[in-house]
Every structure is written in C-alpha cells, then in structure tokens.
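REQUEST ID: PR-0412
SUBMITTED BY: lab tech R.K.
PRIORITY: routine
TASK: structure prediction, single protein chain
INPUT:
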Amino acid sequence: MNIKHAVVVYKKSSYQKKVLEERSSYYRQLVKKQNISVREWKQLHQEHQACIQHVKQCLQSHNIPFKAYSRFEINGPIKADLIITVGGDGTFLEASHYAKNHVVLGVNSVPWSSVGYFTCCHQDTFENKLKRVLQGAARIKTLQRLQAWSGSKKIGPPALNEILFTSDNAGATSRYWLQKNRGTIEEQKSSGIWIATPAGSTAAIHSAGGKRMPIEAVKFAFRARELYRLPGLKYQLSHGELRAKEALYLTVKMDDAALFIDGSHIMEPVKRGKRLKFQLATQALQVIA
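STATUS: complete
OUTPUT:
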C-alpha cells in the first residue's frame, strides 16, 4: 500500500482531561488519595502517551507524513490514505464516522485495560503491522455501516456498531410503530430499539439476548429493549435481521425521542410523527485485520 499521508487519531486519557487540563481539585484529590475509581488513571495515561509517541516515531522512521488529532478535534473530512487510531474502540468508532475511501488501522494503546475489538495491534506489534501494510501483505476486512434517514435527509454519520432509538430521558417509555420493508406495521412500547451492524451485533444486541453475526456479513439486525407485551398480542417484530437494500422503518410516537449513534457522544433528536429509515450505508469501511 502506498501511503502518501496518514492521520493519527488518539484519545485523551481521563487523567489528562480531568487532572492535567481541567486541573479539577476534586479529581486531583481522588488521585492523591488513590480512590479505587481512579487508582489506575496515571498508569493508563503514561502507557497511552508512550504508545502515541511510538506510533509517531514509527511513521517518521518510515518517512510517512502525518498529522495527529485528538478524537474530538476532527470536524470535517479526513485527507489521508491511512487513518491510524490510538486508544480503544471508542476512538476507532469516532474516527470511522469520518472515513470514506480510507483504510483504518486500530492500535490498542493499553490492551490490559481496553477491549479493542476493532484494533489489530498494540505498541509492541505496531511497526510489524505497519510494514505489512506498506508491503501490501496485511489483510483488509470490509465492515458494513448503518445509516439513519428522515425522508431524503441523512441523520448523523454512518454507524459502525449500532444506533439506539430511545427517549432522551433514561426512565421514559419509548413508543413507536415498526415496519420491516413494506410488511405489517407493529405498534410497540419498550425501552427502545437497538439497530446494529454485524460488527455491533457482538455488543448491545448480544448482551440483550440476540445472536452474533459474522463480522463481514452484509446485513444488519434489530432488537427491542425490554419490550412490553400486551396480553393476547403476538409480536412479530421484537427482533430480526435484514439484508442489503432492505430497510427498517420506525415512526415516532413520543416526544423527546433521540437516536444515539455508536454510543452516547452523538445524540440526534427526532420529533414525534417522523418516519425514520434504517439501512446499510452505501459505503462500507475498510479495516486492517
């Protein structure tokens, strides 16, 4: 692979944000007293910073020009041949929202603390992985993404993991009508609906009782959270799978509804009466395996 320019997207550790940058007296006291909730913060920060520096040094040694951004500094299209994420899955997901014709390589900066489902290497193995990429020997996976629509307008970026339709109030009931393709419309009350890609099927949907899909499958799944079942009614859309070009439709029957895309950072409000469509995005993501 010919890499003319790379972009490094990294997370900022909690220690960096709360203690070093915000200089919060509350968090500094927690760290000083070695409170159990922050006991590992400093070590995590130091190992994460070391990994970022190692990635930069490797790129320099291979004469690859690059720019580095923290994950929330990106605010537009990325101009690069290769996107390298340094952190965990949250950093990888954030960068994926800006990826188009890019190849993405994930580095798990602290593998003993972070799951790193999407990452393919860590500090000690990064340079060998980079060499394989340069030689064209690295395997590339094609992962589907999911797009939400309201009419002809896209809602938010394409999700690599999942979209959650729910209330923006965690304690409120979600009310909506659901329709698979052009089939029967079913009214439901629940805690919301998970809509997930194959990559995301190993997370929330699986935890809620759903099954994992092969990671490179060309389909997506949905599952109601804590569906309220009225006596005597049979629910046929409590969960299901859809193939490429098929669509799941949801009509909002509530106020204060929202879509949460790949976690809690991206929340898109949706109004009562809106008819939403969920479908595989037209452009999949290319990921170094």
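NOTES: The longest helix spans residues 41-61.
REVIEWED BY: pending
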